[in-house]
Amino acid sequence: DRVEGRAPPECFADCRAGGNAEDVGQRQAGKHQRHGTRLQMALDKARRAEVPISIATYLGDLAWLEVAADRPDAAADRAVEAIAAHQAVGKLGDAVELSGVLAWVEARRGNRSAAYERLAALRHAAGEAPAAPSFSSLVLEARIAEALGDWQRAAELRRRTVRMAVELGMAGPLIAERY
Question: Could you tell me where the beta strands, DSSP code E, fall in the chain?
Fold first, then answer.
């Protein structure tokens, strides 16, 4: 049923279901809750089995889920634990990427300078040239701008990420940024 260049029909379920923004928000919160429950169960299982790489991965997934659910305190707690877990298993690149959660948390708490300092440190650690940031760091920068209420900058960055996704043939990120 997929039409090339278009999102699959299930991506529009919330829009088609009707209702006001509060209804859509409640459905989204329910999805975050269900997904969080599944991730927590997987994390618990990984801990019981003592599989450090899986523990680190699930902690990282939970940190980003808290960002999506707009829960900065929980996101910060999960990110700190996830970063330490990734460092412990030698996945330093993933640890650096997870520091983006902490940048978003700073922005969400209204600390503009700390948020952008963390973003700059992340980009430096990832080896990104200032004039050529990666797709993921641009997405993060847009999230930071949104959290700070800088809607014009956020929209500009979202347009830039959509263009980048098209240029790179990245259908998944394109759907996430466009819809």
Answer: none
